[in-house]
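User: My collaborator sent over this chain with a note saying "see what the structure looks like." That's all I know about it. Can you take a look?
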Amino acid sequence: MSANILKLRSAITRNPKLITPQTLVAEAIAHMGNPHEPCQVPQADLNTYRVDFVTRELHDEIRSRYLVVVDNPKILGILTASDLLACTYPDNDPTDHTISHCVLQSFATLAESALTNLYTPLNLLRQHQLRPIVILDEHGQLVGLLSYEEVHAIALASQVQPSTGSPASSNFIAKAEPQPPLSPNPSIATQRNQVMNKIIAQVHSSLDVQTVLDTAVTELRAVLECDRVITYQLRSDLTGKVIAESVDHPSRSVLHSEVSDPCVTPEWLEPYLQGKVRIVNDIHETEMTVCHQQMLVGFGIRSKMMVPIVVEGEIWGLLLASEQDIPRQWQPAEVELVRQLGVQVAIAIQQAHLVEQLHQQLTQREQDQQLLTQRNQQLAISNIELARATRLKDEFLANMSHELRTPLNAILGMTESLVEQIFGPLNEQQITSLNTIERSGNHLLALIDDILDLAKVEAGALSLERVPTQIGPLCRSSLAFVKQLANQKRIQLTEQRTGDSIPDLMLDERRIRQVLINLLNNAVKFTPEGGHVTLTISLTKSTTETDEYWLKFTVEDTGIGIEANQLNRLFQPFVQVDTALNRQYTGTGLGLALVKRIVDLHGGEVSATSQLNVGSCFTVELPCTSSGDSQFMDSETQRSGSGEPQSPQAVKPLILLAEDNKDNIDVIQGYLAAKGYQVIIAKDGREAIALAQAQTPDLILMDIQMPRMDGIEAMTKIRQDETLQYTPIIALTALAMKGDLERCVAAGANDYLAKPVKLKQLIATMQSLLTSG
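Assistant: Without extra context I'll predict from the sequence alone. Here is the result:
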């Protein structure tokens, strides 16, 4: 086997780095940044094929520069740093993407047994733009890579030239084509490898572009023994600046000088993009423009050799070696050295740019993560503040409910007692006055209830209690609520049904009754005397392909009507449609807002149409969920009963009233005494416990909010006494907030009434508990 063949086989970079299409870009970059991974070639093989110019470092450099992409057992291509930079990544962010986004270039393969001459690999390398040849064994398995640098170095040392293409222009040398005649210079290959190894080591150790450029010009001038080597970077306007220099004497330095040559045009640069090298042995004997010659003289250049630094398909800058005083015949080996050095510098710049880009993206990601963390912390703080504000709001509403309902309880209770003439007969004017007081108190109570209900809905605290509901009784009870007001204004109330019979449906009966009463009350309020209000109930089938049915309530009146431009404001809280109406009609504007919220919770829709001075029509549509149980009675009806309460037992029951408000004590005590009950009073929870243990009452009325000890704690302690375990307890509270009923029942209450308490309802509840016990 000839020496050249041995050299070729020893020049194969065996065990190249393998990656798959699923390899992350960051991992591929890491492979390229670590050239000194342990070589797996057996030592015996290295000794067999080792020649002087093939070093361990050179193989490591090839391994780090080229990655073989495989999808076992198929070899897909060879990936370089330039390929990574040319890839298109989603969102321009390569960090978390695989190399499957990269387009692999064509490559040549050659069996190791076919390495019988230098011409075959050289021509294959030229045909594939100097990309390494993939060397295979007799079974088609990967052996390694054969690079252009190694093959061409062997050709130069052996004075063997590859086949050439068309002649180059007078001062250009085509890429990869050494120019004859070739003088033997075995040291240039060794020097070239040393220079390349230094540049590569510098690239992988720092990835600092300026350091790489400084190393390149210094080492190149030492090998070429010329006067000056510079690198200057081109700008978009084709001017440039010298950014790296090695010169024989500091007085001749042109570092940081601006380069502006009017002869430099895109056409002038085009040969560089084709990979060619510009050679000028003597500026006085080479055809060029006068302006270009004058610029070269100004920089002290008599002879020059210039190669491009091409990054991402564009000329980043130029690497120039020059002599000042004498012409110089630049040798092909020297030209090839400078050309290869330009390629290595371009790779270094590409890798530095990629690393910088990844660093910026990682930095941005860290900043984004920090910002996200800060925002999460701020959100957590905001959530804590929101929870605190919600708690404070709930506490405020509870306190306001108590403070408003407590005096209302006394007002309405005393009025109810007086109207029933428990304390003696009244004349007609007194009864009229009491009715006015009762009406105003009930109106105030309704406003308080609307505000609290709307607050619960807005806070998401209002939950529905769906039960099987008979629609007929629901509508009749709603109409009965507004009947008295309608009679006073001589307004005719009518109930109509259309379509099929309506089955029992799953609804929150109390809330839907609240919706209907609000709509009917508004209709009566805004309809002049002698008008007409109609409640229509119908069951309609959905217009879609589903078999879904909708229950429709329509409240139509012959009232004053609403202007069309005001209809979209109807269901907003605290809004009434006209200031003139505000002066004529009472109300807070909460009723319709509450109607919409309740209907929305049921999954339904509410709408309105109106014509000024003709009337209005409000429609509520609810999706139907039928119930098989048609026998249903409202829980309040079950508890209070429809008839009058029975008279107390012959022996007067002993009632313990735990209440701290004097007005409420007077009202309840007076009413109960008039109805035949004995009443003892406790003004706080501790006193209530003591009296209950001492007197053993038949029933306890327990206020919740009291000084020293509240009603919840008092009931808990009373239930711990064996003699009082089964004594009926009715909790009376003005809080009326979500969870109050559950807390009272958990503490031991048998029933719960919210203030202001209807005294008739109180008597009915007491009698029910006393008789059932």
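A starting point for your reply to your collaborator: DSSP finds 23 helices and 26 strands in the chain.
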